Amino acid sequence: MFITFAKKLILNKRKIINDPVYGFISIGSDLLYDLVDHPYFQRLRRIRQLGLADIVYPGALHTRFHHALGAMHLMSQALRVLQEKGNLIWELEMEAAQAAILLHDLGHGPFSHVLESVVIPDVPHEAITLAMMKDLNRQMNGRLDIAIQMFEGTYPRRFFHQMISSQLDMDRMDYLNRDSFYSGVVEGAIGADRLIKMLDVSQDQLVVEEKGLLSIENFLHARRLMYWQVYLHKTLLSAQAMLTQIMHRARELAANGDQLFATPDFARFLYNRFTLADFYQQPDLLEAFNGLDDNDVWASVKGWKNHPDLVLSTLCEMLLNRNLFKISFFNEPPGEEVLAPLRAHLTAAGVPAEHMDYFLITGETTNSAYAKEQDPIRVKMKSGALLDTADASDLPTIEALTKIVRKYYVCWGKNVSLRG
Amino acid sequence: MFITFAKKLILNKRKIINDPVYGFISIGSDLLYDLVDHPYFQRLRRIRQLGLADIVYPGALHTRFHHALGAMHLMSQALRVLQEKGNLIWELEMEAAQAAILLHDLGHGPFSHVLESVVIPDVPHEAITLAMMKDLNRQMNGRLDIAIQMFEGTYPRRFFHQMISSQLDMDRMDYLNRDSFYSGVVEGAIGADRLIKMLDVSQDQLVVEEKGLLSIENFLHARRLMYWQVYLHKTLLSAQAMLTQIMHRARELAANGDQLFATPDFARFLYNRFTLADFYQQPDLLEAFNGLDDNDVWASVKGWKNHPDLVLSTLCEMLLNRNLFKISFFNEPPGEEVLAPLRAHLTAAGVPAEHMDYFLITGETTNSAYAKEQDPIRVKMKSGALLDTADASDLPTIEALTKIVRKYYVCWGKNVSLRG
Amino acid sequence: MFITFAKKLILNKRKIINDPVYGFISIGSDLLYDLVDHPYFQRLRRIRQLGLADIVYPGALHTRFHHALGAMHLMSQALRVLQEKGNLIWELEMEAAQAAILLHDLGHGPFSHVLESVVIPDVPHEAITLAMMKDLNRQMNGRLDIAIQMFEGTYPRRFFHQMISSQLDMDRMDYLNRDSFYSGVVEGAIGADRLIKMLDVSQDQLVVEEKGLLSIENFLHARRLMYWQVYLHKTLLSAQAMLTQIMHRARELAANGDQLFATPDFARFLYNRFTLADFYQQPDLLEAFNGLDDNDVWASVKGWKNHPDLVLSTLCEMLLNRNLFKISFFNEPPGEEVLAPLRAHLTAAGVPAEHMDYFLITGETTNSAYAKEQDPIRVKMKSGALLDTADASDLPTIEALTKIVRKYYVCWGKNVSLRG
Amino acid sequence: MFITFAKKLILNKRKIINDPVYGFISIGSDLLYDLVDHPYFQRLRRIRQLGLADIVYPGALHTRFHHALGAMHLMSQALRVLQEKGNLIWELEMEAAQAAILLHDLGHGPFSHVLESVVIPDVPHEAITLAMMKDLNRQMNGRLDIAIQMFEGTYPRRFFHQMISSQLDMDRMDYLNRDSFYSGVVEGAIGADRLIKMLDVSQDQLVVEEKGLLSIENFLHARRLMYWQVYLHKTLLSAQAMLTQIMHRARELAANGDQLFATPDFARFLYNRFTLADFYQQPDLLEAFNGLDDNDVWASVKGWKNHPDLVLSTLCEMLLNRNLFKISFFNEPPGEEVLAPLRAHLTAAGVPAEHMDYFLITGETTNSAYAKEQDPIRVKMKSGALLDTADASDLPTIEALTKIVRKYYVCWGKNVSLRG
């Protein structure tokens, strides 16, 4: 707190950063440099993009920090392409769009969906992002006004918002690219380079030139593959279910007045349930939130592995040593013919009925590679007309990619023993 | 503790693991699978190979877990090459050499040199590695006997030890390769693929065929570049110096009876000073050591950022927000003409004389790309003779690479303010 | 003729070859080395895999020589995987399968389909390949017996033939991989590495493990993309049409007794029309065929650019300077409303009616990514059952990939002027 | 001749070209597009950058066409970096520098040094390049004035010339990059990306920032490696020596009035000996020169393989079937103790004394990675001073890289038999 950020006044902050994915990322202005340098953004260094995915793909350790820089890089590439095609883009817009994409994930907690759903269930991460952006804007005397408008979708030129948030935004392009690269799932490469060269603006919409149709299809296909191969990988779903149950149990114990090991900032969230209003009314809550990262979660799991509560300590020990729950997929919700034998097994392993839900978990996942209705990817035909991708292509596969695929799963602790 | 590792008995544990560096890594036997699966090895998932280096290279987040798997992969590649050249290698030796290289880094603590030198100053990490390997061997009923001999250098066929530990070992090949890949410093690529194709055994020594001379030179050159560009990068040295001072201060406060936030396992090491004998005499000390990883350090730094001790909290806050010490290199040890003004600056910033050493640090680094004397890289000439690389080459650069380069540095907190 | 191949007797011919695609390719036996060294195989150095495709993708210059080596490399990788999964494969089979895939394209002429259809219209290239393999087998005293059986599909273990020729053969895997790499169409990457790891043999059929389903789908998708983006690229079709017309005109002139510049070997084919029987009856015809490569075609086109026949010289000049015909695609065969105006334009440009077909060309192309009926890609389910890929997957896209897409095109010389 | 290039008038010629090395290359202006489209530049499609090198590295088939495009791409990247660092560069200069680098190799014949030294020994290729650039400038009404000044070094701002021709020019960066990529010699990667980011202009000189010192050293090292591993590879030197002797013999026979098969354009050069004055005085000589490419050479070698002259036909047959001369390197010029036995062997093989020089060839090669004197690579120190690289570095290796390494070789036809 007592540190004066005198260096912030130094001019000429141009910097290039090594990136295994793109070679180099340039930070293109002093404002962008100051944002990267801010503690809110530096926190993202300590939050992995893919949470627990390294349990399956040991290379998938990249952070939200790196992802946000990469998305900023793609934004600058894409805007340059748009300029070269004759679209007028002001320097201020260029900077604002990069700022917006840089900050778009600020409000994510560690292990995003796991933590957010259990520990801060009442406040969506987008709302926290916006609160942090507004706080930054205040600290920076309004220099983020346009960036926030672009982020919220209120900036008059709508295509900027589509570049930040749509089915073909720079966020998605970078994360698919980066997740594919670091997981080593090379088949997930989306060809971002070519896609970006094909972008244009027409009728204030972000569009793809007709000759980029195969590139879009490839992008959707790669995205689908990444879902099934990485994001919804069975082992990862199992580990996430375990961490979710750990957090549920910890909160339950906390609510019962149990004393749990935790870093100071994490303890605050473990022992309270905050609303969005709290974030705006308690001046130091954002700062406490900014104290949360992956280390708090792992330190807790390690600190709890010897906790007297058998449910908590068993789950922690199993996760730490990668002794994971079994998981099976089903096309229909699994019935008693599936669940009853598992319950019997767990009961025999010492799991009491009231704790059964911690060791036998059901869930569902859905995925469609291309959600046609909500926000189509628009193609500019040589005739000038704008078509939805699925209508522009005469290939049968794009239509197939719009189908929603739904799967159900059961996840259970095969090697559990609760006989203390 | 109460978990039974029943799954360990399942047969047929072949597995392939995605690796962005090599494509796929195969785990070639049940023994190797069991080693990877063991909590001692799983801990390495939570220890980064390059410690703080992501502060400069945001992609450099790879773990010792991934590195050890990669080294095992190169070992199997190299042994296969040796076999194809007519060297007899038994399956048991093949497995043992892979086991040895897999486990060679078990005893590293988090942020290795930083932590090890301050927190466990009396026990070198190699000694802990050996203790852990012996403990594993006990658990596995002697199945690691040969691997341990190879690791220690007592196995009769000496070239196996050279593949595990020498100037051209698989450890080094993987880490240079991997560090170059993840940092994005592409110039550091060592051409491991070709080097391995050039390996052979002659007179029980690991050698390189004469036609691989350029590859060796390239390897040494790349290694040198990695030192100056990555391992000894100014900003990284500065961050390491800061973390070292944080740990010194924490131990000082702990020794004075101060109550410091820490995970249970880390607290044990923070409040005690263990010897190697302790590791063999206290049955649970290895387990506690196995509880230490990067998360303990970061959780502590975060937990201490509001500690009442101004030295500790200032250093923690600065490191967390990447507000790093300035650093300068010198060819001679810097004298008072350099240090006096810095001391004056720090005094003016409120640093009292007795804490000056926390904010003004001097040190030195040395590097020679090829240490000719100790353990030469041997080249098998077409004539059959074995020569030291530097003698085998008629190019003037290899000789130059044996020179030791020494640099001195001063590191100081330019933006510090200790006026609480 | 008078050269004695004494070096053929030297032992120990192991060799590794640099390959930008796979790193290194090893030649695994003396027989394979001798095949690579033979003039029949060395000719493939001078025949590009993709014919005229460098007119669109300037990097796509790779030869059938390199492709055949690459396919041999994949074959050895795949066979090793099969071995590791417990399939017994003899060394002789290993060598024969590699020999067969190495030689599978021997009988291709330069600019394969273009030249073969016009210059040797009565003999399919597979028949010439077989004639050359038999001739080699004779020269090598029967050492290719098994390889030829595998190639023809008469070897008892059928899966070997499937690895040489099927919808998932090593030929296809290498060429898709290699064509994608050299054209720079990165979206066409098929993930060969992973596909090969998923191969197995069941009921004497080459199969893919169930967990490789996404990899197959990705493979089919990438293949489809390569067709539309590379093999059937409009500009390439146009250039091929032009070269075809050049060859038609040259043969027409030759048939009329015109004296045409040509290398001696090419002249023989230009002035005669051979049958398969000729290849077996005229002892030197194979040797003359082996004298044909890309250089003959380009040298001819250059030699003919000043030929007095205006049709021939105009077409050659246009192709040499990349002044290509226009081309348009249609979903239905184009009718007179399309063709009549083009004919009028060409007539006005001086093209006489009897030569109209040289400057106005129609054609059709079809493509289906997965030809389900003829030769399914079999998936081994965890249950042990073998299913056709399209039945094994519950994803809607594989079904879509079996659809046949048919397109029609018109190609015409927009910038032609025949007023000499 | 009768083709009207009407399409040249079409506007909006922007185009992107796939490049496996850089992803995509953009053609940035109509002038550049017209240059690429011109027959002078299209010829480069048919001339390989590395001549015969594919005999060792089968992937090394890339053309001068692709190289020139790549160099143009790097030029645009580098100029953009210079702009971002505050150097004013006009659009016209940007275009001219790209045009100059695009055209810098126009005057190369096929198999450059081989052909040029034997077939056009009196006219250096640079002089032909200039003649072609001037001819283009005439056709384009002076639009290449600045480009030609930059190429010749007469343009007032000297750093442009240094970017076209110096030890750190874009030509060299692209060819080292590209040759490394296509040969598969990954160790030759120069890190062009980073080098370019480090460029600046100071005192009208092209300089590298001090923090790029390691990158320069890496560049020089990679360049040295490429020389010994690729450009001066023994097998390649041998093949080049053979092709040189083929051309010598062909000219000798031609001078004696022998009738030799050749394409019309090649025949003109084979039967005449032109001076630079001829190129300016004979209006169609440039056009004939533009008719020469790799196909002429290979077609000739193939056409001559049955020529009655035993020297010519033997050499051609051997080269075609990769039955190459043996070659040995020496540190001193080899004396009679080396040559006499070889001569005896060849005499026994039927080589008459008067033809001995065709089958027993001596030569020398020299290489220094960094030619310090002639044209230093300048480093801008943080102090602002400009230093020669060798003086700016305190590493001992750069000094070593300035040493000139000289080697002598003997090359002879071990498997020759001239008994017809």
From TrEMBL, chains A, B, C, D:
Record-annotated HD/PDEase domain positions: 60-185
Source taxon at top rank: Bacteria
Q: Please name the InterPro entries in this protein's record.
A: dGTPase-like, HD/PDEase_dom, HD_assoc_2, HD_domain
Instruction: Please name one Pfam family that this protein belongs to.
Output: HD_assoc_2
Its recorded name reads Phosphohydrolase
Source species, please?
Dyadobacter beijingensis
